[in-house]
Amino acid sequence: MPRQHPDIPAAFARVRSRDRRLGPWMTRYHDTLMRELGSGRIAWRDPLAVFASLGLTDEHGRPLTRDTASRTWRRVRTAVAAARQAQASIAPRPGELVRGVRLATPPARLTTPLPSSPLPSARVAPGAASPVDGVEEATERIQAVLSAMGAARVPLPRQPSRIMPVADARPAPDRTDEP
Which of 33, 82, 83, 106 is deepest in the core (most CB within 10 A)? Predict the structure, then answer.
């Protein structure tokens, strides 16, 4: 693995800090510039004087012109608006865990008593824990959840028999006899 010279990251950091291009500077201070310049027509004489006092240049290091500043500001506004729109489209709305997934409200407390368990009681030796108690408790919890959901048991249709009746056990017609 090649070794890195320790001064290289520091040198790049110094170069980046001296970046005087107008586009990145406008992007960094977009909201402040919007308050100062407004969203209507801009008289560029005063802003160009401020940009020159800050030492800002165009992409090639040349002094700024009205046309360069205007076009750069238009590009920066479009790019910032697109970035904010993209961020807003992935951010969850209020009440959502992630985009499109809403928080479920907890069900209201049951006010009606639960029906008794349909399971028959089992005989248990004296002093031993009843194995049916856990089943009855689970059945009651399931019934509570189903009643809170407003669900009802729907009978399933009868399953077809796997044994073919003798009357239907004839062979399929042979298709080779057809003209």
Answer: 33
